Each structure stands twice: as C-alpha cells, then as structure tokens.
Amino acid sequence: MSYEAIIGLEAHVELNTNSKMFCSCRVVDSTTSEPNCHVCPVCAGMPGALPSINKRAVEIGILVSLALNCKIEDVSVFARKNYFYPDLPKGYQISQYEKPLASNGYINIGDDHNTSKIHIRRVHLEEDTGKLVHTNDGEKPRGVSLIDLNRAGVPLLEIVSEPDIRSPLEAVNYAKELHSVLTYLEVNSGDMEKGVLRFEANVSVRATGSKHLNTRREIKNLNSFKALQRSIEYEIKQQVTAYKSNETILQETLGWDESNGKTIFQRSKEHSHDYRYFPEPDLPPLIVNDNWKNSILSTMPQLPHTKRAHFLSLGLTDYDARVLASQRKIAEYFELAVKLGSDKNPPVLPKPIANWITTHLFSIINEAGKSIDQIDLPQIHLVSLINLVHSGRTNASSAKLVLREMCKTGESPEIIVAQLGLQQTNDQVTITKTVDKVLANNPDQVTNLLDGKDSIFNWFFGQVMQAMDGKSNPDLVRTTLQDAIKKASYNRGTE
Amino acid sequence: MDLAFQSLAMVSDLLSTGDITSVELTEVCLSQINSSESQVNAFITISSDLAMQQATNADIAWQEWINGKSDQKPSPLNGVPLAIKDVICVSDIVATAGSKILEEFVPPYDSTASERLRDAGAIFLGKTNTDEFAMGSSTENSAFGPTHNPWDINRVPGGSSGGSAAAVSAGMIFGALGTDTGGSVRQPAAMCGVVGLKPTYGRVSRYGLIAFGSSLDQIGTLTRTVEDAALLLQVISGPDLKDSTTLQNKPPNYLEMLSKTDNLMGIRIGVEEKNIMGSLQPEVEKSVQDTIKTLRHLGAEIVPVQLPHTKHALEAYYLIANAEASANLARYDGIRFGQRQTGKNLWETYINTRSKGFGKEVKRRIMLGTYALTAGYYEDYYLNAQKVRRLVQKDFVQAFSKVDTIVGPVTPTTAFKIGEKIEDPLQMYLSDIFTLSGNLAGIPGISIPCGFDQSGLPIGVQLLGPTCGEQQLLTIAHIYQQATDWHKHIPRLEH
User: What is the ipTM of this complex?
Assistant: First the structure.
C-alpha cells in the first residue's frame, strides 16, 4: 500500500515595526542586544499596565494578508491565551482566536509546469514571548535560567495554512514562497537563523486516495528550510512505519533535534494546555474599514509571482526568472538594468543582462558575502559593459575582469577598460601578422596538425591569444588562423 | 473651625485666598490620622514626607498666583491632601493591592489618575486599605488587617474601597480615590456616610489600576460632598492613550451646571417597582422612600421603571469578574516582582508563591474564574454571563429613554459587624446586589448619604445615570445635598 502525507504549516512572522505590539518599546535584534534594555511596565506585565495596539503592526498584518489573497475581517478581536511560563510576563499571551485579522487566502507554489494552490486558513496578530537562557554549570551565573524580555511583546503574525501540502519539498516551496512574499513586502528581514520566521508543521499520513484524515502530530520550532524538510521527511517515515506495523499514532507535540536528525517527544494530547481563551477586555475590537484597507492596498508592491511572470515574458528561462524574482532588491535591480538596456543603441536585451547577473555578478556578490544593494555597481555600468562586449570593443574574458574592477571602484566600464588596457584588438593586419609569426615559429606543430592531429588547432589559438595579451577579438583570431592553416595545407599539396 | 471635616471645595477656596497653607492643611490631616488611625486602620502606607514636600511646592504655586507673579491659576486641587486606594499605582510608593504577594512592590510608574492629580498639585498623603485585589465588600480581606468603620469601630466600613471611605469619613483626608468593580466605591461610601461616585466605564483611565475585572473596573471618588466629587472627576477623567478602553469624547465641565438651579423641575426620576430583593433593612427602605419624596418635593417627576434582567446580574457579574480576575492575577508568579517563595523547581515555585501570597477569597475567585473559562464550561458560564450582561445593558438603555436617573438603595443593610459575613461568601456577595448591575452596564452611579438607622449608622441612596451622564447625575445629587444635611454629620471617634 502506498501512503500520502497531509501537511499543514503554521508560520510565526516577527514584524519589523519600530515599536512593540502593545507598547512603545523599540523592537531590537534580540540575538545581539543587551538583555532587558527594551522593556517597560507594559511588556514586562507589571501590575496595572495596559496594552495599546500598534497601528503599524495592524497595517503590516493587513498588507501581508492581502498579499496572501485573504479576506480581511471588518471586525477582529484580541483574546487572552492563558498559560504559565517564565518567558510570558502576564501569564497570558494577547493573541487573536475566534475572530482573526484575516482568513480564507491562498498562494500558488511550484513552477509553470506544476503549480499547486495552498490555501491559507487564517492570519492573526499576537505578541512574541521573552527568551529564556539556561546557563551550564561551567558558566556564570552557574546553572540558572535567565529571562530576557527584549523580545516580549514584539509583533508576531501567525499564518496558518490548510493541510493542502503533500510532500516535504512542497512544504519547503510553500515556506520559501512565504519567505519571498514577506521580504518583498519588507515586513520581515527573512533572517531565519535569528528566529524572525519560524515554522510549525502538522503532519499526518494516510493511504493514497483515502479521504479520511488520520491523527496528526505537530513539530514545533523549525527555524530553517532544511529543518522543515528533514523533520517532515523523518516524521512521514515514522508514521508510515507505524501504520505498516499496525501501530496507532497518538496526537503529540514534537520538537526537532537538528544534530541527530530526529524528532523529540514533547507532550501528548492529554497534557496539552487548555488555554482558556477569552476576549481581551483591555482592548476594544479592531475595526478595519474599506478606506483603511484600500489605502494599505495602494502601497502593495509587485509580488514575486507577478515579477516572475513578467520576466518570463521578457524571454528569460524559468530558472533565471525564478532566481531574479526571488528577492525584491534583485528583481528591481534587474528591471532597471533592462530599462537602461533598452535605451542603448543597439539595445542590450534582457536575456544577456539576466545571464550576467545570475552568473558573474552573483559570484562576485557571494564571494563578498554581500547583498545586491551593497555592491557599488550602477545598472548603467553593467549594461554598458555588455554593450562593449557585443560591439567587440572588449572580449568576454576581459569583461569579467572589468566587472570585478567596476564592483570594487564604482568606475564606468569604459574607464576601467582603458585603465587596464583591455581594449580588444580588431586590427586584421596585426592579427594576420601574429598568426603568421606563430605558425612560422612552430613548423613541427604545423606538420602535426596537417597530418590530422586536429587538437593542435586549439593550442595554436591559445598561442596567438597569448601573443596578443588576450586582447584580440577571439572570433577574428579563429577565422584568421583557420584561413592560414588552409593556406598551409594547400601549399603542402602543391609542393 | 474644625478644618479636618471641611469640604474639599471649602479648603480649596481657603488655599486660593491664602487664608491657609497646604502645609497647614497637611498637618491637620496628619494629626487627625495620628489620633484616629489606630482605631480605624484606613491606611496601608502613610507618605508624610512626600506629602510635606508636595505641600511646600503647592504653597509656592499659590503664593506666586496670589502675588501676581504667575498668571496661571493653580488647579482647585493644588495643595489639597488626598488619599489613594492601594490598588492604584503611585510612582515610588509601595502598592500592595491589599495583598501579601505585593507587600514590597514599588511601582516605578504613576497611574494616569494619580499622574493627573500630581500635575494638578494634589498632595498624596497615603495609600488606603482595601480588600485584597479589591475582592470583597468589607475591607476584611486585606493582608494588612481590616479597616474599622468610624461610625462604629466594631463594624466594617464596607468595601473594597473601605480604607478610602473611612479616611474621608474620619476627617483624615479631603477626598480619596477608590475603585468600583461591583460597587466598591458606592457601597463603602453608603456605609461610611460619604459621597461615592463611580463614573461611566472608560471615563477615567485604568492605566496603573491593578486589575481585578478589567471590563468592570472603574476608578471613582470618595468625598464629603457631591461638589467635591465633581472637582476630583474633572481632573482625573478624560481620554488616555495608555488605556484603549477610555471614552474618546472630552468630559464636559462637571462644575458649571451644579449651581445653575436649586430645583429639579423637569427631571424624571425612575424608581424600580420590584427592586426589593427580600432582605432590605426597614430603615434603609424608609430612608430611600424619604429621599424619593424629597426629590419629588424638589420638583422631580417620579416614573416607574422596569429592569427585568437585573435579577440575573449577580450570577453574571461573579462569572465575568472572576474569569477576568483569573487571568489578571496570573502575573503574580514570583518571577519578576513581588514575593517569591522558591521551590525545588519552577512549578513548585509557582505553587508556593501563589499559595502563600494570596488570601483565601482571592484563591476562591481565581478558581471560580478559571473554572468558568475551562474548555467545555466556557459556553455555559462565561458566554451566557456575557449574554445576560447585554440584556442588563439593554434594560438600562430602555429605562434611560424614559428617565434621567434611577434612584434606589445602595446596600441592603447598614454596616455589619466585623466577622459577621466573612465565613459566608454568598451573604457577602449579596451586599453588592444593588450596585453591580451598574458595572455590568458600564453606567455611572453615585451614592450619597440620606439618613441614619436606629444605631446611628449612615444610610446611602444610589442614583444611576445613563452612559456619560455624570454631569446631570452630579447636578441632581448636588441639588439634593443643598436641600438636606445628611452629609454634614460626622462620626465621633472616642480617643
């Protein structure tokens, strides 16, 4: 019997607002900031302190929900989720329960040949908890748990998918698409290693074709695409094995041990919390009217799938379109380059621009460990460089060198080509002279070539290019060399 | 003239003319406290040093204005000694909420109400006794001993704002803040023979008020006269960004209407036909009937009204208040502030801290509230209580479409003996039977002295008004006080 996996994902997205969800404390990078320096009576849950809603966080929540094709609720209600834990200052988390901010959305994932629509059940706003730091016996203070409340109260957006996902790879594609949308909207840094985007996966398996939903298990705190994929793969295997040996699956909450590649049991359903949700009496219902919604909608940038479709229409390959659309900054860099390229005479086409970005420019960026906006390369310089190559004023291998220099100095390609003396020689007389000289200096190799050892041709080509410091037009060298060898062959025949 | 028992308005006039100084007034209060506090136990903290320092500053402000050095007339509260119920945070003064768990808690922030009083130049003489977390009707549930009624020190002052009511009644202070979740301002006011005003829910910011039932809690005033209540309300009321549940409309001038007229011509006064809940003390009933007569003689028209759903108010009230309290009190876990009773592990620390820190009544209410929110019971208890609440609100809206105010008793009996009801929570809860429907509906109410029983214990009458109807409510009550002298009686404590 074959099995299929039924997977639903919950994403917890920290929103990069200036201040926290319910107070005016700054939102800081909680992995690097001095502990407990961004805390006030409200986010520390002091007696008598009251929350007030961060309007910007609501706007971001609406923006994301709209990007995920959700219906924004006219009225949503904050609720208290009650449980005791030291990282939760009030003894309850302010979240949304019965009436979330938005619901009933979807995103499409996959490529042109194979798309699937993943439905979004709900999107709601809540506050993050603080962080516990447990010290070991060797550390100071020794063997204690310390609380850092800098993260307590940071706005979180929870995005819950329907169980529409059928494989670990699809889960990762969904997560990546979400990541891409969030970074496009510039509401989250996307730095998953810092925990600003965390996933939980609900996984069950069933006989392929069955309509029945089996018991699911939940894997918490998945902080990388790799962990997401591996943990789901592992969990599917576990469950399939269990069903094959007629064991039952119990509803459980699991953790993920990345180093051992295993899930860890956390708690069973019987021990799951009764959160005793009830409407938060300290906050009035959140009303979103059409005016507000529309003004937020008007700030919506083009999203990854729109960009991708546009890039495909420019003649790019599916791969290039996907890569260039994956990040908003890259996409926008490319788009401006295309526009400047079309103004050139003759125009520089999108395809070569895409090639230059995805191959040469990316390798420079990756080596430097920077992002595209941190590189001092105006698009006009890139387009001009491609133009120099196409018009034969410099050759492709020189151009790679020029590109590196451009990124370093910020100078235009024309200046760098001149400075480094990389202008291409198209002078037929010089090339012919050099070819004749190289052939005359290597009579034995000429004989070998004429005796049928064709690979010698490339050796000659390299010798000529080297003799001209690599600056000659390779196409001209090739044809001149071919002509010269034909001539030599003819001469031998007539001897 | 015995300054100690003068009205706030009177001493404010004397301050503004330079006839007395704030330092003198503060000394009067301190000497009154000195002679009576051992019998009354109205205060948990007496902040005499702060008070004297504030009084010195207040005197400078009055002097500058009197001498023409400043053209900004100080607030009528400038230099007036006040007391604040110990569930309201005042920066840098211990705020116990009547609980052992907060015995040493010093808030580093002001409540909005105390901040507004501070800005007006009021003198903070101390923090008054209260039932633990305002949970009680007799001020016996205080970790710092019960407060005694100045009219008979063997009797309770009512509660939970019993300390504030007793302090005003005993001439220790010219006015005090209390809080009213189910009658905790109006009921002790009635039992101590002073004026207790509970404004509309949201009229006074709850920021810095240590929460009990967030959707019911409201800060109110305890004073000798209705005019004094208006003076205090004017300063503490109004929208506050730190409390999202505050009413957004600006409060009217509560004082300007007070003396416009001396009769009640055109005023329609509602009297509930079937309000008598079994055990109304005959003298209380007679005094209320006499009050209705007096009001009619002053020109008011008496109109019968029906409030059919208020018979379910008690049950609904205790479900909602306790449910909210169970979450509000979760933050007292010994982790960040307050007393910690360390155990072997985290859960034992929680259990020890809360077992030792909370009193019996608080634990009872946390358990009741937790139960009402538990999965499977939430619909039956919490949701049904909310339905009743809406019906009670509707009853009042309908009644106030016909009348300007509804008059009735405040409490079924005059002050009872200390210890009389403490072992019978249900009897204790019934002493709020006439006040708590006002909290469910969120409407304003005022309790004013209207007679004495055979033992010489004061009796109060309650006037309820529609949402934001404080101005008219105060005006009607003021006209009644101008025509009667019940509020001028003072208790005789034996020294």
Answer: 0.96
